[in-house]
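Thread title: Can someone regenerate the structure for this chain?

I was given the following input by a collaborator and told the matching structure tokens would be attached. They weren't. Posting the sequence so someone can regenerate them.
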Amino acid sequence: MSSTNNLVELVEDNGVAWITLNRPDKLNSLTADMLHALQEHVSRVSTSDTIRAMVLTGSGRAFCAGQDLADVEGVDLGDVLDQHYNPLIRAIKGLNLPVIACVNGVAAGAGANLALSCDLVLAGASAKFIQSFSLLGLVPDAGGTWALPKLIGLPRAMGLCLSAEPLSASKAEDWGLIWRCIDDDKLMEETTALATHLASQPTTGLAFTKQLLNSSSTRSLDEQLDMERDFQSAACQTKDYKEGLNAFLGKRKPEFTGK
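Best answer:
Regenerated them for you:
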């Protein structure tokens, strides 16, 4: 599977869908056309029989500088969220496969929160995360007010959102906002290795794990224990569990299919 336009590119390689924001002259700031293309690409990934992991990244020296404000001048931004961002964030969070953000430079505003909607965030050492909304009299969106307090706690989330101070990739890793900060020249190599590894794993089980972790903060311990029981019951019926068990007992490397 591959799809290319002037704004967003989708390429499949070794079971990994690479979605690349491709507007480097504008730091990959988002337009309605780009957001529409992103939604279409994520939808294609969700229905693919061959894709088992996804990477979202940007071309050039930025991941994404957020919304292109010239593209929404005079528009009710609530409508933009309703039509574009909210469906996109829901679609990314709902993917039944691992999703990696490869943050290769600045991630600001909705661009930062788009990265945080992914399951794992790898960032180059020069990358920065900026909740820039307050500089314009706006509120954080694209799921930022949901993700930030859960990831780093209310005091740090409040500080980032009210001050709009840039957060370095290394500090973002220290705070637990992202999975890993990587030297810039190794970022793509390590992202490729991780994505390829995840695509070779029992992705149905990984999808169950994602659902359990994402829902855990809204449930009591008793409710979560019951969910773990139900998902484990489903997981042990998969072909991948049988393959994993046979490989373990046979002392060989498993060959998972994601089924």
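The chain has two domains: 2-199, 203-250.
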